[in-house]
Amino acid sequence: MEDFSLFDIIGPRMTGPSSSHTAGAVRIGYVAGRIIGSDIDEVRFTLYGSFAETGKGHGTDKALVAGILGFQPDDVRISDALKLAREKGICVDFAYSDEPAEHPNTVRIDAVSPTGKRTEVLGRSIGGGNILITEINNMEVELTGEYPTIIVQHDDVLGVIADVSRVLAQLDVNIAYMRVFRHGKGRDAFMCIETDTPVTADMLEIIRRLCSDVKTLFTV
Known about the structure:
Elements: H1 6-10, H2 19-36, E1 42-48, H3 49-54, H4 60-68, H5 81-87, E2 91-96, E3 105-112, E4 118-127, E5 130-136, E6 139-143, E7 149-155, H6 160-170, E8 175-182, E9 188-195, H7 201-210, E10 214-219
Parallel strand pairs: 1-2
Antiparallel strand pairs: 1-3, 3-4, 4-5, 5-6, 7-9, 7-10, 8-9
C-alpha cells in the first residue's frame, strides 16, 4: 500500500483557490526572489501551458509577484501583490505564451536589478504546492525548496566542492542531498546543497571567508 503524508491529503496552507496555480506560484516567485538576491527594478513573467491559459483566473499573476516580494503561500497580502509591487517601484510585466512547455504549469522569470544585473529563472508548479526550479541563467538545475537549501555559484575548479563540504561539516551541518550543475568543464557552476538544518547568515559568512573560489551563495 502506498504511503501518504498529511500534506498530500489536505494540501498546503495557502491563500487562494488552487495549490498548483496559487500556492505553487507563490513558492516559485519566492525561491526566484532568493536566487535574484537583490532589489528588483523590473520583472517579466512569461507563463506557459495551463499557467497561461487559466492562471489569471486563479490569481497566478498575483501569486508570482507575491512570491517575488517575499510572501509565503498563506499570506493575506497576496491579493494586493500587484499594487504593493507598484508602490515599491517595481515594473511588472506578464506575457502569455502558446509555445509548448515540458510541464503545463511553467513560468520564466526575468528580473533586472537597479544595477542592471539580469537574472533568469525557470520554474514549474508540480502539484500540491510543490515546485521544481529547472533553470538558473540558462543553466539546468534541480531545486525543490523542500529542504533548507544553500545555492553556491562558483568556478568549476578542483577542490571547491570539498572545501564547502568540509566547512559545513565543521559547522555541524549535515548534507541531505547535493547536486552540482555546470555550463562545462572549468566554467561557471552551481552547487545546490540541501541540508537537515537551516544555515544561518553567520554560517554563510564563514563559508565566504574560508572558500575563496565561491562567487556568490545564498539560502532558500
